[in-house]
Amino acid sequence: TNGVITIDPGYKNTGSCESAVTFLDGEKGILRYRGYAIEELAEKADFLETAYALIFGNLPTKVELEKFHSDIKSHSLVDDDVRKILEAFPKTAHPMGVLSSLTSALTAFNPSSVDINSREEMYSAIVRILAKFPVLVGWTMRKKKGLHLNYGKNSLGYVENIMYMMFKQPNEDFEVNPIIKNALDKLLILHADHEQNCSTSTVRIVGSSHAGLFASLSAGISALWGPLHGGANQAVLEMLEAIKEDGGDTKKYMAKAKDKNDPFRLMGFGHRVYKNFDPRAKIIKKAADEVLNDLGVNDPILEIAKGLEQEALSDPYFVDRKLYPNVDFYSGIIYRAMGIPTDMFTVMFALGRLPGWIAQWKEMRLRKEPIGRPRQIYTGENYREFVDLEKR
Ligand code: SDX
Known about the structure:
Helices cover 55% and strands 3% of the residues. By secondary structure, it is mostly helical. Strands 1-2-3 form a three-stranded antiparallel sheet. A hairpin with a 2-residue loop joins strand 2 and strand 3. The radius of gyration is 22 Å and the shape is globular. The protein starts with 21 loop residues before the first strand and ends in a 26-residue tail after the last helix. The relative contact order is 0.15.
């Protein structure tokens, strides 16, 4: 501090806003969306209901939910020129880069998503993105797999339709697997919001310049991409695969994670706020067991993950630093069992986080928050004369 400005790297001790959307208690491992506990939402609600509650403040009545879903369905077509933009990407493009670009491109095809000044305009932009984003997710995955693209089917439920766009093959009928549908509902609910995390803070600060909803979401997707944030779920599977290739030698990776000279971290462990356990990880770990059992998948990766967790929970380095499995540690194991490619895991995180980003952006705009513009403490050169090129 210089007496006027206090520097707080990573904003570890800085609050950026007041919010009524999500409550979490890092010590007690509590997470609630609009006061509803995630444990109850994961058990009793579906993803669209949860999205409605986050965005509009209360769980919807049957009539409200049906109207919400039909409004979303009326915008489920994505302009064919967006598909042409997708075709232009190389197969090697990372899905998060594709998704962020296509989401930003939607702004060009939906100019009304920029200048949003009334609740009606806000509602219109919200149902549009909730309708079109799952199409982009499905297209991104199908492109990655070299498969033809699916458009949505309005006769299906919201999550069923997501599965349709991701998995429907042209030569087969589409059957909703209830085990996968329930697991996907649960995973998306558990990822739906998490107060002022890195990507949500990005959505808020970009939105604070009134850049528009889709542009703010595109920025949030880029922030989520990083391996320290949402990219961790992909990094966890890559780490577990490496350990498996290495003969399952978890001790070697534990040593690497503790070695100060080694940048390697145990991906899927640790959290800025949760210092005892991540309540989402507990639910997801249980779901991973159930899904793999129900699908009859015997994935050695799951056993390695459990072994790693056991070792870390009894290792002083991790216990002293309060490093426990977070939301990303087990989620990838379920996505893998569903046949989702590893580099699509963070796209699934973005799909889950979409309602939370929307809810937080909406709150920021309705509260007319000022444009985000932090200060700094200058540590550079004092004034010095300009020197002509010949004399340098
Ligand atoms: C998400 O914020 C959110 O809410 C995010 C999220 C959401 O829903 O939006 O919950 C989703 O991003 C979950 C986190 C996913 N990331 C990872 O799993 C990557 C691995 N974890 C870390 O990089 C780390 O734990 C963070 C980024 C999650 C938190 O970092 P902090 O709070 O800035 O903590 P830090 O980097 O200052 O670490 C504190 C100490 C350090 O050791 P010392 O310097 O004190 O000796 O703990 C060590 C770190 O080296 N440490 C780890 C570690 N995480 C922290 N050591 C080994 N392995 C790890 N995973």
